[in-house]
Design a protein that fits this description.
This protein folds into 3 domains: 334 residues, no CATH class; 103 residues, no CATH class; 95 residues, D-Maltodextrin-Binding Protein, domain 2 (3-Layer(aba) Sandwich). 63% of the residues lie in helices and 5% in strands. It contains 29 helices and 5 strands. It has a 5-stranded mixed beta sheet with strand order 2-1-3-5-4. Helix 23 runs antiparallel to helix 24. The longest helix has 26 residues. The protein is globular, with a radius of gyration of 27 Å.
């Protein structure tokens, strides 16, 4: 029975499928996040509408087009919809979980690899971006694929087959170079994080000098080089300089270095919930610091210390040194934190004589015992419950313009807190030893994390970010009008509603900075802001009005003289959808 369960461990990432696909194909429960999903979807549509694979933009673009290609290809095959745009990244998130399992099975063991994939898939920010039109899942999948190939070469070198060794290094180089094509300059963050791990080992330094690795890097960089060449041909030198200015601007956007340190400390802790309270205990784990440890193979200690600990620490410090404040930038750290936590949990579960003796004789480890871990979770649960029942959510709703459903958010907070308190009750319940309580608590914590993420998806906190705007734009009569004539946007650049209008319109119109430009060259339909109605100095009819915008139809002289001609549609704001 035990061997049969071991054979099923590679399929553990499939348990994440319900989280990834629950309500995914329900169009009423899926809507885009204006920033950045709406932008990515709109830009990907430009590639399709203009039939241009390299430079479809009106001016030099600041990002490489790899992830736009993924979204455009999916919409070409499945149609233009938010589900079609998100589906590739759902599959890539599942691939990332499997790659984490493979890496964990090499440097830890198969059970620890399975736990790592599950920890990663049930961390909150990772679950959010798994169902998001975002380049993060794409480039992290490529990065993890390269890490897996390097790990295979370092842990199990192909001594009997030099050809296999060469191909591993070649494809690792290709995958690492493709991360730049998918995520621009940010892809260098995880690549730099690997350097301490490789420099620490003689074989790793040899790999860095391998011509096959560098050949793979050159071949993988070809799409990026072609894009730079095409951009410079279309936009001049700005096609290249824009690519450099954007990351520099992001890294210094608040003006002084290290200002991102407190932000990323909070962002990583909050984004990796419900697993982040385990991180301090995992960093102090005996699996990292006990040189006599026999639970994992001793010769793999260098990989546990330098891949699972030094690599994410390097990435975090590089991010903290900048002044950027974007929580998704820290996503490459999450797979390594999941592996780190899985190593600690596996070390606790291992029933070996050496581990027992070490725990019995070393009283300094009592602070990281299971009761201490559970005490941290119970304290966090108590803080959350006190915050909720003291009206903290109501105060936030009154002082901000948030669109979150506070009733559902409160239900989710109660669910999380109750799960943590029940876990504490399991551990502190008498008549059982800690060894007897450990395995049920770990299984319960994994199950509760799965249920919490499932609840977040079901309650609409994951995947459904602008339902009212989508419902307004998807009205059948409005879609009939927009599917026959493009609707331009006038004086709306930089607004949230403009991003969603571009993403959900059947035919994308043009954008105009002023009404004079629109009158000279614009379409007969236009989206304008309600505050700009007084600037209209031409005859028009209002076809739709909601969310602070108007859809107007510009009437010609013939339409004014013949009242029954023109577009026989007059939409009024729905009382449910109007603000």
């Amino acid at each position: 029975m035990h061997s049969r369960l071991q054979q099923l461990l590679p399929f553990t990432p499939l348990l994440l499928f319900p989280l990834l696909l629950w309500k995914f194909f329900d169009v009423d429960q899926q809507s885009l996040r204006p920033w950045d999903e709406g932008l990515y979807m709109w830009r990907a549509r430009l590639f399709l509408d203009q039939n241009e694979a390299w430079a479809p933009f009106a001016q030099a673009h600041h990002k490489t087009p790899g992830h736009y290609w993924i979204v455009a290809l999916s919409m070409r095959l499945l149609g233009v919809s938010d589900s079609a745009a998100r589906l590739p990244f759902v599959l890539l998130a599942l691939l990332s979980a499997w790659l984490v399992y493979e890496i964990g099975s090499l440097i830890l063991n198969r059970r620890a690899g399975a736990m790592a994939s599950f920890v990663l898939g049930t961390s909150y920010l990772w679950a959010v971006h798994s169902r998001t039109v975002s380049p993060d899942m794409a480039y992290i999948s490529c990065f993890l694929g390269g890490v897996l190939l390097l790990t295979q070469e370092l842990v199990k070198p192909a001594q009997s087959s030099g050809q296999l060794c060469r191909w591993r290094l070649y494809f690792a180089g290709v995958l690492f170079a493709l991360t730049v094509f998918l995520r621009s300059a940010l892809a260098f963050l995880p690549l730099m994080g690997l350097m301490p791990w490789l420099f620490k080992q003689a074989r790793g330094r040899k790999i860095l000098m391998s011509p096959w690795l560098w050949l793979g890097l050159v071949c993988g960089a070809l799409p990026t080089l072609i894009w730079v060449w095409k951009s410079m041909a279309a936009y001049g030198t700005t096609g290249f300089t824009t690519l450099l200015r954007f990351p520099l601007g992001k890294a210094t956007e608040t003006g002084f270095p290290l200002s991102g340190f407190p932000f990323y400390c909070v962002a990583v802790f909050a984004g990796f919930l419900p697993w982040s309270p385990l991180l301090p205990f995992a960093v102090a784990s005996l699996s990292l610091w006990d040189n006599q440890d026999k639970i994992f193979r001793r010769q793999l200690m260098v990989h546990r210390r330098w891949l699972l600990l030094a690599a994410p620490a390097t990435m975090f410090l590089l991010l903290a040194f900048t002044s950027s404040q974007h929580d998704q930038y820290a996503l490459p750290i999450y797979p390594f934190m999941a592996l780190l936590i899985a190593a600690d949990l596996e070390h606790r579960l291992a029933d070996t004589h050496t581990a027992k003796l070490f725990r019995e004789r070393n009283y300094s480890t009592r602070w990281r015992s299971l009761p201490a871990i559970v005490a941290v979770y119970c304290c966090l649960a108590s803080i959350v419950l006190v915050f909720y029942f003291s009206g903290g959510l109501l105060k936030i709703a009154e002082r901000s313009d948030t669109t979150l459903d506070m009733e559902n958010l409160g239900l989710l907070l109660i669910l999380i807190s109750s799960a943590w308190l029940l876990g504490g009750l399991m551990v502190y319940w008498p008549r059982r030893t800690l060894r007897q309580k450990l395995k049920p608590w770990i299984m319960y914590h994994i199950l509760s994390a799965w249920l919490v993420i499932f609840g977040a998806v079901h309650l609409g906190f994951v995947g459904n970010y602008s339902p009212e705007v989508k419902a307004f734009l998807k009205q059948p009569h409005l879609q009939n009008v927009l599917s026959t004539t493009p609707a331009d946007l006038v004086n709306m650049d930089g607004t949230t509603i403009a991003v969603l209008l571009r993403a959900y319109s059947p035919i994308m119109g043009r954008s105009w900075a002023s009404f004079d430009e629109f009158k000279a060259q614009g379409s007969e339909l236009a989206w304008i802001r309600e505050s700009d109605v007084t600037e209209l100095d031409f005859p028009y009819r209002v076809l739709a009005q909601d969310h602070g915008v108007l859809l107007v139809h510009v009437e010609s002289s013939q339409e004014r003289s013949v009242p029954d001609r023109g577009i026989p549609v007059h939409l009024t704001p729905s009382p449910v959808l109007s603000r």
